[in-house]
């Protein structure tokens, strides 16, 4: 139900770019593993997509991009739209990446147009070149167009000409001067990563925020500076999106800033890639970036069910040390010893559940979702004391009776733990997409296909946990990803 670009393989969607024009969102993405064209899809809500005519294809034999097309950037200009994209050539055996350009009057019809001395590639003295190429392939990809003080720049995933081989990843820069893009020194050189993929830059409240994706741990990180030129620094925590989310790109939607990415299922690059719904980018009072839930979820709500109208809560494990107390304004669950899972039937498959959780004692507690009545499902452990949250899939493994359990940590996140141990939460279950916000900040965002049970609830292990003033909003059904074959 989420967009995958699926064809012969379930992981065919590659790096993405989203731009909004009028009331329509436009998604451009790679097709993996062939890299032979850049696909195009459109959406009215930024969540459900339908494919339209492809943007561009690899070049004819002998052209600079006749082997593969890699990551692109699309922006609006005075004359329409332009796409800067990565190309590889057969004559180079596909190991030399360059950046070229295409233009369009309407985002649907594209023409390759390499003005401004494009395509350009990696050159010294600032970047690796053919004579300084210790990995035997040159990173020079993932362009991002940025305008600063009337000048156009391309930010590029590149490699420094010096330093430890596994730590040369930089955010390179090319500046448009006298109708030519000329390479400048790197905008960021953290001397930490092999590559900094899909760089993008945004200005918020006078500061410059540089966002990049890191292959080493499949996370999205960010850096900040008071000036465009830098230096760019990190906060004590520089992770913008938790593990599994990758190739993040930002767009402006009116006054809002949206962040899109794709998700690696099980954090395996070649297993399955999915495009989740976007998040909104914001900044706190200390200048740190954080993510909020997408505002469009509100327009997708169909019905609103208050806590006193939830279905009957059932203790699944029948633990004799466990009990629950249901009152008009508060539901309290406890298990003096061992686990108990208290769940009830979801009113719909796709929901947004929000309310307050209060840990009144010691011990462990958290949320349970897509539970099947036998204790199999997703468990979100919430550490109210240390501000740590983790989701795992947990249940019976019917495929292996010698190791007859599934216990897999999927993702973790951090939040500021309140002294009173009360947290306001919002949990979205939309198809196979799961998103948890605490205090209006997204802490978990992932996709998983294992469990589809129709029950949700709370678990307790040597704890007393209360659910207060919660509401479930049922959501519209997701559209199928190929709802239309209109070739606009």
What do these coordinates show?
It contains no helices and 36 strands. By secondary structure, the chain is mainly beta. The chain folds into 2 domains: 13-293, Glycosyl hydrolase domain, family 43 (Tachylectin-2, Chain A, 5 Propeller), CATH 2.115.10; 302-475, Exo-inulinase, domain 1 (Jelly Rolls, Sandwich), CATH 2.60.120.560. The strands form 6 sheets. Strands 24, 25, 26, 27, 28, 29, 30, 31, 32, 33, 34, 35 and 36 form a 13-stranded antiparallel sheet that branches. Strands 1, 2, 3, 4 and 5 form a 5-stranded antiparallel sheet that branches. Strands 6, 7, 8, 9 and 10 form a 5-stranded antiparallel sheet that branches. The two termini are 23 Å apart.
Layout of helices and strands:
Elements: E1 13-21, E2 24-31, E3 37-43, E4 50-51, E5 56-57, E6 68-77, E7 80-88, E8 98-104, E9 111-112, E10 120-121, E11 141-148, E12 151-159, E13 169-177, E14 180-188, E15 197-204, E16 207-214, E17 219-225, E18 239-241, E19 245-253, E20 256-264, E21 273-274, E22 279-283, E23 289-293, E24 301-306, E25 314-315, E26 322-326, E27 330-345, E28 351-359, E29 364-371, E30 377-383, E31 388-396, E32 405-414, E33 422-430, E34 433-438, E35 441-447, E36 455-475
Antiparallel strand pairs: 1-2, 2-3, 3-4, 3-5, 6-7, 7-8, 8-9, 8-10, 11-12, 12-13, 13-14, 15-16, 16-17, 17-18, 19-20, 20-21, 20-22, 22-23, 24-36, 25-27, 26-27, 27-36, 28-33, 28-36, 29-30, 29-36, 30-31, 31-32, 33-34, 34-35
């Amino acid at each position: 139900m989420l967009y995958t670009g699926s064809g012969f393989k379930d992981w065919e969607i590659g790096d993405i770019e989203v731009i909004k024009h009028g009331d329509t969102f436009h998604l451009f993405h790679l097709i993996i593993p062939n890299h032979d064209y850049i696909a195009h899809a459109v959406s009215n809500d930024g969540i459900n997509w339908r494919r339209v005519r492809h943007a561009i294809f690899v070049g004819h034999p002998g052209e600079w991009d006749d082997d593969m097309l890699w990551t692109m950037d699309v922006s609006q200009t005075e004359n329409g739209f332009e796409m800067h994209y990565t190309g590889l050539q057969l004559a180079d055996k596909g190991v030399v990446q360059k950046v070229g350009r295409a233009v369009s009057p309407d985002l649907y019809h594209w023409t390759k147009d390499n003005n401004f001395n494009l395509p350009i590639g990696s050159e010294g003295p600032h970047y690796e070149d053919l004579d300084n190429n210790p990995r035997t392939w040159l990173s020079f990809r993932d362009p991002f167009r940025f305008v600063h003080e009337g000048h156009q720049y391309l930010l590029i995933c590149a490699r420094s000409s010096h330093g430890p081989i596994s730590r040369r990843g930089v955010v390179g820069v090319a500046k448009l001067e006298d109708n030519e893009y000329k390479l400048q020194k790197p905008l960021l050189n953290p001397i930490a990563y092999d590559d900094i993929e899909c760089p993008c830059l945004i200005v918020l409240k006078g500061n410059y925020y540089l966002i990049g994706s890191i292959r080493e741990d499949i996370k999205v990180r960010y850096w900040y500076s008071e000036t465009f030129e830098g230096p760019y620094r990190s906060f004590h925590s520089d992770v913008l999106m938790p593990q599994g989310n990758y190739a993040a790109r930002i767009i402006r939607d009116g006054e809002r800033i949206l962040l899109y990415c794709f998700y690696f299922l099980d954090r395996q690059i070649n297993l399955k890639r999915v495009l989740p719904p976007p998040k909104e980018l914001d900044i706190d009072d200390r200048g740190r970036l954080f993510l909020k839930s997408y505002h469009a979820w509100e327009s997708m709500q169909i019905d609103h069910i208050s806590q006193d109208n939830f279905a009957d809560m059932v203790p699944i494990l029948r633990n004799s040390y466990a009990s629950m107390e249901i009152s008009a304004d508060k539901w309290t669950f406890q298990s003096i010893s061992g686990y108990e899972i208290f769940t009830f039937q979801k009113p719909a498959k796709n929901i947004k559940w929000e309310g307050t959780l209060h840990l009144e004692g010691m011990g462990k507690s958290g949320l349970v979702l897509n539970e099947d009545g036998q204790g199999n499902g997703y468990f979100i452990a919430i550490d109210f004391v240390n501000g740590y949250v983790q989701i795992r899939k947990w249940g019976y493994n019917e495929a292996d009776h010698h190791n007859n359990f599934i216990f897999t940590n999927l993702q973790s996140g951090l939040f500021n733990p309140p002294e009173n141990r009360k947290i306001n939460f919002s949990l979205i279950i939309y198809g196979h997409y799961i998103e948890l916000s605490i205090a209006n900040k997204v802490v978990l965002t992932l996709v998983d296909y294992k469990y589809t049970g129709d029950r949700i609830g709370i678990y307790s292990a040597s704890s007393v946990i209360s659910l207060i003033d919660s509401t479930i909003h049922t959501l519209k059904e997701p559209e199928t990803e190929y709802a239309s074959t209109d070739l606009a």
